[in-house]
Specification:
Elements lengths: L5 E3 L5 E4 L22 E6 L12 E6 L10 E2 L19 E3 L18 E9 L4 E10 L6 E5 L3 E8 L2 E5 L2 E5 L3 E5 L5 E4 L4 E9 L22 E4 L12 E7 L2 E7 L6 E6 L4 E4 L20 E6 L6 E8 L2 E3 L16 E8 L14 E4 L9 H9 L5 E3 L4 E7 L4 E2 L1 H6 L30
Parallel strand pairs: 9-17
Antiparallel strand pairs: 1-16, 2-19, 3-4, 4-19, 5-18, 6-25, 7-8, 7-28, 8-15, 10-13, 10-15, 11-12, 11-14, 13-20, 16-20, 17-18, 21-22, 22-27, 23-26, 24-25, 24-27
The protein binds 2-(3,6-dihydroxyphenyl)acetic acid and fe (ii) ion.
Length: 445
């Protein structure tokens, strides 16, 4: 497929016209009495009309038919998608999942929507506060089918297989090691090219922002220019085969039939768009003297809560970097956190866990549940010669860190059949090294 075009920037006021229809974007106003090319004007609001300018989000779409031309939304089966956080009793133990399994038979065709499996979450779309973590596993493209999420925003983290994401705003090709954000209400459809798997962080009630940089200054971490926004590209499948528009609403799936493609936007402008970002562009900041800095230095995007400094969820990565800290235990420290930590691995080996934290798998360390390096890692790092070394070469791990205390679903605990029951054994070989007679080296005789 010819390479796709993008516009660059984070949350800019973008404007795009399909080149087949020059002048399709109305000039100087949003609602002309008659729009160019006989298009319909439709606003998509991503924030309350009255939000302050700094957080006000909306886009204007100029389309062949307005979205309202659909038949009634009818409830459909929702597979392993769930917003029921009371399916099983709470379990605070450290949890790890071996790679989430692909369908046993490649004959069984599963598309992106059918392949959504909810792993854990808290809160809901009704009260507009909370998160859900889903794993998508699919092997076939969505055909004459689109999806939109009425409940919140999706941050997609592909782990295996490219996603060709068609949206109302245009197309994005998203490869593993890139992320893609599809915000609340945006119609999209996913084309895949074989076995496909990835992670989704869903946030209810907030949008993702770039973190503040404080004393870091004006540049660094994820730079705004590296975010890619699609360009207008319409499909005129008017009166084509029946199209199913699927909505996730209050955690349930609904489908409406219509006889035209929802990807019928000829021109659009605004600051509420889907976007993608390549994780290799992250400008890594790290300690260069001593001690292990908190992982918040690796925050790519944050969805803020109303409490200052507290995120509904942060998307944090552990990218390849140099480790140079002197007289320091360099891997992650032992830790108990007032936040929940879900981790996933896109590729490579994670430094704090030698075994069984594998690409396509995951781990959950719930609020106040202790965790940290396994026994092997502790021994190696305590004895290592502290020369500069490359950490995480060829690796990309990430964390969804949330202030919500999450429940795991029945799918996560049972149905997925990949919970690693032996996980907590990795800390059992840790022995006390306490020596009451210990003296600092310069006092030893
Ligand atoms: O638990 C983890 O592996 C994530 C993590 C990484 C780190 O470098 C410091 C703290 C932390 O929770
Ligand atoms: Fe942690």
């Amino acid at each position: 497929m010819a390479s796709l075009k993008y516009m660059s920037g984070f949350g800019n006021e973008f404007a795009s016209e399909d080149p087949r229809c020059p002048g399709s974007l109305p000039k100087g106003q949003n609602n002309p009495q008659v729009c160019p090319y006989g298009l319909y004007a439709e606003q998509l609001s991503g924030s309350a009309f009255t939000c302050p300018r700094s957080s006000n989000k909306r886009s204007w779409l100029y389309r062949i038919l307005p979205s309202v031309c659909h038949k009634p939304l009818i409830s459909i089966p929702q597979g392993n998608l769930s917003h029921n956080w009371d399916e099983v009793s709470p379990d605070p133990n450290q949890m790890r999942w071996l790679p989430f399994k692909f369908s046993e038979s490649s004959e069984k065709k599963v598309d992106f929507v059918e392949g959504l499996n909810t792993l854990c979450g808290a809160g809901d779309g009704r009260t507009r506060n909370g998160i859900a973590i889903h794993i998508y596993i699919c092997n076939t493209s969505m055909k004459n089918k689109s999806f939109y999420n009425s409940d919140g925003d999706f941050l997609l983290v592909p782990q295996k297989g490219n996603l060709l994401v068609t949206t109302e705003f245009g197309k994005l090709l998203v490869e593993p090691n890139e992320i893609c954000i599809i915000q609340q209400g945006m119609h999209f459809s996913v084309e895949v090219f074989g076995e496909t798997r990835g992670y989704i962080l869903e946030v209810f009630g907030a949008h993702f922002e770039l973190p503040d940089l404080g004393p870091i200054g004006a540049n660094g971490l994820a730079n705004p220019r590296d975010f890619m926004v699609p360009v207008a590209c319409y499909e005129d499948q008017q009166f084509a085969a029946c199209f199913s528009v699927i909505s996730k609403y209050q955690g349930k799936l609904f489908s409406a039939e219509q006889d035209f493609s929802p990807f019928n936007v000829v021109a659009w402008h605004g600051n509420y768009t889907p976007y993608k970002y390549n994780l290799d562009n992250f400008m890594v900041i790290n300690g260069v003297a001593f001690d292990h800095a908190d992982p918040s230095i690796f925050t790519v995007l944050t969805a803020k809560s109303t409490s200052p400094g507290v995120a509904i969820a942060d998307f944090v990565i552990f990218p390849p970097r140099w480790g140079v800290a002197d007289h320091t235990f360099r891997p992650p420290y032992y830790h108990r956190n007032c936040m929940s930590e879900f981790m996933g691995l896109i590729k490579g080996h994670y430094e704090a866990k030698e075994e069984n934290f594998l690409p396509g798998g995951g781990s959950l360390h719930s609020i106040m549940t202790p965790h940290g390096p396994d026994a092997d890692c502790f021994k190696k790092a305590s004895e290592a010669e502290l020369k500069p070394e490359r950490i995480a070469e060829g690796m990309m791990a990430f964390m969804f860190e949330s202030s919500f205390s999450m429940a795991v679903t029945k799918w996560g605990l049972e149905t997925c059949n990949c919970l690693d029951k032996s996980y907590t054994k990795c800390w059992q070989p840790l022995k006390s090294c306490f020596n009451p007679k210990w003296k600092p080296i310069d006092k030893q005789t």
